[in-house]
Amino acid sequence: MNISFNLNGSATNLEVAPGESLLQALRASRVFSVKLGCETGDCGSCTVLLDGQPVNSCMVVAARVNGSHVTTMEGLLGDDLMIRLQTELVEHGAVQCGYCIPGLLISLYALVKQGPSCGGEIDEEVIRHALTGNLCRCTGYVKPVEAARAVVAAMEVPK
Amino acid sequence: MKVVGKNVTKIDAFKLARGEPVFTDDFTRDGMLYAKVLRSPHPHARILNVDAGAALKLEGVVDVIWHRDVKPIPHTRAGQSYPEPSPYDTLILGPKARFIGDRVAVVVAESVALAEAALDKIVVEYEELPALTDMDEAFTNSEILIHEEPDPQGISEAGKTNIAARIDKEVGDVDAALKTCDLVVTRDYHLPRVQASHIEPHISIAWVDEDQRLIVRTSTQVPFHLRRMLAQILEIPEARIRVIKPRVGGGFGDKQELVVEDLVGVLALRTGRPVRLEFTREEELIAARYRHPQRITMTTGVMKDGTIVANRMYVLADTGAYGSHALTVQGNTGQKVLPMYPAANIHFKMDCVYTNNPISGAFRGYGAPQGCFALECHIDEVARELGMDRLELRLKNHIKLGDTDPLSAKLGEGKEGLVRVVNSTGLDKAIELGCEAIGWGHEKEPSATHLKRGLGMALAMQGSGIAGVDWGGATVKLNDDGSVNLAVGATDIGQGSDTVLAQMCAEELGIPYDKVIILSSDTDLTPFDVGAYASSTTYISGGAVVKAAAEVRGQLAGVLGPHWECEPDAIVFADGMATGPAGKSMTMGEVALFALYQAMIQPMATASHMSNDSPPPFAAQFAEVEVDTETGQVHVRRFVSAVDCGTPIHPIMVEGQIEGAVAQGLGYALFEEVLLDRTGRVLNPNFLDYKIASSLDVPDMVTILVETDEPTGPYGAKAAGEVPIDGPAPAIVNAICDAVGVRMYRIPATAERVWRGLKEETR
């Protein structure tokens, strides 16, 4: 079936099979920042923004995004907030193998952009909750969390 | 130093953070086919016939192969140096299935979905055989033989028992010594089956190029071993094979083994088309490799003053259906662990048995996490029975500077080893700083009466490469602008070796780090290296880089000396400049132009490095836990690691290694376990049921680098990748015992197990 959706700001038409996941459809379209880790919605390596919300794209039937906005890392490469997040992760040594990192960055981006769903400040606890769906086997999460805190702290400094 | 010891930007970090297409699967080729493996539903069965007729009738299914289609060439998939210390007990596809999940047939089709559909259409005729899935039963039962090959090679008791490998080595006389001791303590410890769980699954793409060469793009830790193994089992010359390792999404030992590459190789050669095979997460948890499950019996004899007189460790281990790493992982369980307390009498014995369970193999720590758990829990038990402080007992007995590792000569990589003397150690300092950071001796009050707090510690040591076996090569080539190409066989799998090696190269040549262009792990383009395992890369491959860079520096001094009319030795290379006497100086770019266009030489060198030493990095690790006495739930509040890895070449990357290892060790201690039913079927092959640590599970971590100067290491470096995974499980379990008085002899210490322990304690 044919679907139309907005991918990273561009109107996109894709031919997808019934039951094909958004992860599969994106990777088949050479959107390679979206990684396959488990295909059961447990690891978060395939996290994308679906109408602004982070979702595991392996758990979304591609046909369902008809008419929606899908944003992946490829669509955020020029975004100031994403660049700040990437820079802090890199400088804090949070990128080891890097396989989980684009998905993890999408989750952090959504958190910092939108603020915690329960309101309030983005503290370490909130960051850890936001990352709980992004499994990382390399870092023990210490440096990714430190990097996210650095981004948040820099934003709080009045200009 | 200008570059070494500095937290330079990790060389590949930005492209990874940008999600650039750098992994094996971020790549396609026209006409690519997709492979899927049909796996045995039986733990032990002969494969009498495979009828693929219906599968091949599906449009888009190109080929189905089974054991009749491939030549039976016994080999090991262990991915070790040749000759391998692992048995040749494996075929690409064999006539017998030995575990639920063993390869039976392979389909290749135009899409993954088609390949999966074809699997359902294949009809296999099996002759079921009685199976052995209990390691004790496999040890004693010689009626059922899991391996009965007519041409066994390297199987310890081939054709007689199910014992794949055994070791029995003794220093001194443990039996006699135990009789003289004031106290002898014996305990059993049980270690679970756990899985590396790198987030990128095993994946390979192979194709035959226009020169009829087989190109394999693959997520591997051992590109050069892999090329050799593929040549052996595909029976084509190594000259016709090129292995390319792109970025790798984690390995942790699990990608040391050849798990998928032989299949894509066979199928690409048969079909003439590119073939891709990627494991699902379920396959990772069934058909990749595990940390060997073990039962360890520790017997320790001590005197009243706390002197350890004798130590005995007996290990029974389950290698599963195949014996890759059976000898060496279990060897490490003793070899890397027992020297921590170099008693005059040490006995290490192990039996590693085949079972009809899925396959065990290499996983970060390589046997040491099992041994360290047993030994470090046991030290606490000995201290308790002796009425001595557990820290004091450790301080009195642990290995010190100048001590000889008592097991080193008897126990090497599956053979006699080389004598190892401790030339650098920061262990005492690590213990001191760790105690301070955790607040040792200052018990904290829990927040509620049903919560109990406790502290635990563990000491660990490992190696830096395999002494006398591991080696690597490096090539350094100077370019016109003063930049250099550095080509290494060393394999960056995310741990950051490309960065560390580039740092060493820059330091040695006195050029900025960003002037080093590194290329690693392409068998056509880089020198050999054994690959990323045994904590070898910084120490061994780093040694090769330093030598090659020093040689290039010597070449440059050799052309500048006559030009400047000075001794070459008088020229200093630093800060991107060459400086001679009498105010002579050139930028490295000018030096390069002079060498290339006036002296007309290509400054370039290749060097190799091996070491007959394997200096141990040390770790002292500490846990503070809170145990809920109503539920048995254990919460690790704080975890301190103080690690001596010699000179940290890149401090925050070393911290990252330690923190990641602690998270993996935490899972080993508390919640990771691959569960099998009585037929060896994996019950939890997904990340929901096989739980690895998430951001909410990890404790507050404190990581302390205790710097020492290892005389045999490049810039004083030792290894860091494995040693910090050894201590978390015993430190946490010792802390649980400190909190509630319950000794967990079996991990993971799940809430249920701790709760049951508490019930028994109060009965």
Structure notes:
The complex is a heterodimer of chains A (about 160) and B (about 775). With about 160 residues, chain A is of the alpha+beta class. Chain A folds into two domains: about 1-75, Roll (Ubiquitin-like (UB roll)); about 80-155, DNA polymerase, domain 1 (Orthogonal Bundle), CATH 1.10.150.120. Chain A is about 35% helix and about 15% strand. In chain A, strands 2-1-5-3-4 form a five-stranded mixed β-sheet, with helices on one face. The N and C termini of chain A lie far apart (about 50 Å). By secondary structure, chain B is α+β, with helices and mostly antiparallel strands. Chain B contains 18 helices and 28 strands. In chain B, the strands form seven sheets. In chain B, strands 3-5-1-13-10-11-12 form a seven-stranded mixed β-sheet, sandwiched between helices. A five-stranded mixed β-sheet of chain B has the order 7-17-16-15-8. The mean pLDDT of chain B is about 95. At the A-B interface, helix 2, helix 3, helix 4 and helix 5 of A face helix 1 and helix 16 of B.
CATH topology of the largest domain in chain A: DNA polymerase, domain 1
Q: Rg of chain A, please?
A: 16 Å
Shape-level CATH architecture of the largest domain in chain B: 2-Layer Sandwich
Provide the CATH architecture of the largest domain in chain A.
Answer: Orthogonal Bundle
Helix content of chain A: 25-40%
Form type of chain B: globular
User: What proportion of the residues of chain A form beta strands (DSSP E)?
Assistant: 5-15%
Ranges of chain B with pLDDT <50 over ≥5 residues? none
List the chains of the largest interface with their residue counts.
A-B, 53 and 56 residues
Biggest β-sheet description of chain A: 5 strands, mixed
Uncertain runs of chain A are none
The CATH class of the largest domain in chain B is identified as: Alpha Beta
Strands of the biggest beta sheet of chain A: in what spatial order?
Answer: 2-1-5-3-4
Number of strands of chain A: 5
CATH superfamily of the largest domain in chain B: Aldehyde oxidase/xanthine dehydrogenase, molybdopterin binding domain
How much is the average pLDDT of chain B? Answer: 97
Would you give the CATH topology of the largest domain in chain B?
Aldehyde Oxidoreductase, domain 4
CATH-level-4 superfamily name of the largest domain in chain A: [2Fe-2S]-binding domain
